[in-house]
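Notebook entry, structure prediction.
Reason for the run: the old model in the group folder had no record of what sequence produced it. Starting over properly, with the input documented here first.
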Amino acid sequence: MGGTVTAVSRSSEHHFTKANEDSVRLLAGLGVEGDAHLGVTVQHRSRVAQDPTQPNLRQVHLIHAELFDELRAAGYDVTPGDLGENVTTRDVDLLGLPVGARVRLGAEAVVEITGLRNPCLQIDRFRSGLLKEVVSRDAAGKLIRRAGIMGVVLSEGEVRPGDPIEVELPEGPHRPLERV
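New structure, fully documented this time:
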């Protein structure tokens, strides 16, 4: 499995959107250098309020560019970084990866996938009605989250648009992604 990094983004403050950059550096065990979510322990504000000692399983947020294509077709102007992701990818089935999959971004950086992003109402504040486009239910009533995946940095390195992506699946049986 392989794909391409199409954009990299970060924000030093807790804003919903993140600015696109020429490159970002992933730091092992911490996340994206200069990003507000950098840290060993959880940095997401609502989770810090619950328990600031939780491990940070959301160091890096990845979204597939194909989602932006679908959203544009549905009438939403959404571009890389708008939904708060750090890495935008193309040609990788991010949502189909199991827990523990390892994603090599560029020559050195490796992110281990921990779970699905749990989209919140901030998405509707960004673009009214957008939440229903990224969260739905299947025929059995199961919640489907499509707003990207989260991971932790195993190996540090620079990541740039145009970098190749390689995926290494864990040994089976595979556990499907759940909300983190």
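Summary: The radius of gyration is 15 Å.
The old model has been moved to the deprecated folder.
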